[in-house]
């Protein structure tokens, strides 16, 4: 996502398949917003755009994950886009990963 001056505000990546450990950690979509541009709704918007792209790619059930600790902004971004929480995954170091499914209509 860029503004009128082509300054990057946010980025998103889509993983077409849940290979490796992506079913537990990472999921189909990852996103990040430039620190100075946070809390302006950009993550919510870029996730919505990525979900449209997933539909084009034929991914109809999209997994999105976030760490339980210190990532309320990401959890809210997922919930804003219709995320339904599944079982969490606990990594070897004890980090708890929240996992959400979003049905793409
Ligand atoms: C997590 C992240 C993507 C959120 O981006 P953002 O553009 O600030 O998110 P939004 O503005 O769309 O905010 C979504 C909601 O979360 C809330 N929120 C965002 N950051 C928050 C924070 N630090 N503390 C509490 N609430 C927060 C917003 O107020 C908003 O709430 P609302 O829907 O009730 O209005 C951003 O902080 C980031 O890039 N973090 C580093 C990378 C990362 O963690 N990526 C996600 C990996 S799962």
From TrEMBL:
For this protein, the Enzyme Commission number is 2.3.1.-
The signal sequence is none
Specify the N-acetyltransferase domain's residue ranges: 1-105
Can you name one GO molecular function term for this protein?
acyltransferase activity
Alphabetical keyword list = Acyltransferase, Transferase
Q: Entry's CDD domains?
A: NAT_SF
Recorded protein name is: GNAT family N-acetyltransferase
